[in-house]
Backbone:
């Protein structure tokens, strides 16, 4: 399988080399590690917590895939591993390119959220910042809205999961039901107050 990347800032003037058989396993470990790091770097870039696109690391990954593509990998297990890494990398690149296109067009939601939030905070209006969080999250589910808002505010998301969020919501629903009655319905939304992302409940009016 040949896995070639788009031209990047990496030096492409030198012809792609070939790896000796004993170096292939180490090269695959290195490529897998770099691709995983690149995925994290792009996630941070698209969320607005990294200022620049990781083009240098992407160039390293592209160059390495070209070298491995030009190397005869006779070992079946190693060839399968390279094909798997390559397929995963190509899928991620397609998604990254699509996100980059949206950013250039000004239609990428998470960047709009970050920009709107900063604009409201500069204006000194906590209410506007809360509205920005809710509006920018339109079209995504509550978990994604909450996670993106926490990242944009610099809050930790390592332990956050859909199951954890469901537990938080169930706890809030139970407390609200005890206060307002079990038949009362609530709608949750993401808001940003004092620079922190929070979940707020509002009662749904009976029709």
Residues:
């Amino acid at each position: 399988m040949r896995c070639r990347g788009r031209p990047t800032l990496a030096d492409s003037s030198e012809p792609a080399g070939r790896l000796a058989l004993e170096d292939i396993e180490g090269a695959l470990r290195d490529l897998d590690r770099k691709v995983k790091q690149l995925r994290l770097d792009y996630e941070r870039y698209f969320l607005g917590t990294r200022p620049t696109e990781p083009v240098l690391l992407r160039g390293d990954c592209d160059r390495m895939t070209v070298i491995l593509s030009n190397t005869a990998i006779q070992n079946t297990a190693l060839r399968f591993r390279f094909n798997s890494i390559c397929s995963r990398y190509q899928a991620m690149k397609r998604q990254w390119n699509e996100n980059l296109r949206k950013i250039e067009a000004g239609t990428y939601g998470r960047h709009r959220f970050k920009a709107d939030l900063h604009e409201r905070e500069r204006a000194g209006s906590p209410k506007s910042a809360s509205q920005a969080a809710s509006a920018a999250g339109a079209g995504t589910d509550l978990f994604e809205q909450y996670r993106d808002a926490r990242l944009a505010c610099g809050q930790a998301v390592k332990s956050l999961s859909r199951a954890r969020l469901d537990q938080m919501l169930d706890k809030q629903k139970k407390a609200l039901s005890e206060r307002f009655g079990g038949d009362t319905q609530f709608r949750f939304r993401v808001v940003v107050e004092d620079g922190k992302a929070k979940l707020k409940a509002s009662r749904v009016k009976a029709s």
Notes: DSSP finds seven helices and two strands in the chain. The helical segments are 21-47, 55-69, 76-105, 109-122, 126-136, 142-152, 162-180. The mean pLDDT is 75.
